[in-house]
Amino acid sequence: MIITPIWNRMIGGLVFGVLAGAAAGWAFGEMWRDERTTVRSGLLFGFMLWLAVVPVTLTNAALRSTGFAYEHRDVTDAIAIVLAVAGGLALGWLRAHRLRATIACAAAALVVTMAMGGPVPVGRSVRAVEILFAVLAACLLGGAVVGLLTPSVEARLRR
């Protein structure tokens, strides 16, 4: 309530958070479609999703350190998008070997990257590194919740 600028930006963050959660839930459902889900499978999914988007940040840090990112912002943004989608594609295909899961994971990785505000500028400060690990915590928590709730939701849908 005291810090005024945060309230103006919070709505956009909430929208991306909801979209990221929906995309991640879809990806989780596709990846564990024929398996029993648990909190453990949710935690595993959250960790794998985070790993799928980490290359976006690491590549961006490398591009920033060489000065490329500052001179070629559009190319750097395109690289981030391609890496996010590629990370999700790899996650979906390696885990599930199904097209729908692969597409769902690509969408989830892209939207999670967008929810992070793009690549986290980890080379700039310790705070940025903390943000990257806060995203890990959010992915783990979200995955655990989805893994926990999925069996009860599926049971209700079958009725």
Features:
single chain, 159 residues, mainly alpha, 6 helices
Describe this structure in words.
With about 160 residues, the protein is mainly α. It has one domain. The chain is built from six helices and no strands. α1 packs antiparallel against α5, α1 crosses α6 and α2 runs antiparallel to α4. The N and C termini lie far apart (about 45 Å).
Strand % is: under 5%
Number of strands: 0
Written as H for each helix and E for each strand, in order along the chain, the element string is HHHHHH
C-alpha end-to-end distance: 44 Å
Uncertain ranges: none
How many structural domains does the protein architecture include? 1
Radius of gyration based on Cα positions: 17 Å
Q: Biggest β-sheet: count, sense, barrel?
A: none
Mean residue pLDDT: 90
Percentage of residues in helical conformation: over 70%
The coarse silhouette is globular
> Which structural class is indicated by helix and strand composition?
mainly alpha
What is the overall number of helices?
6
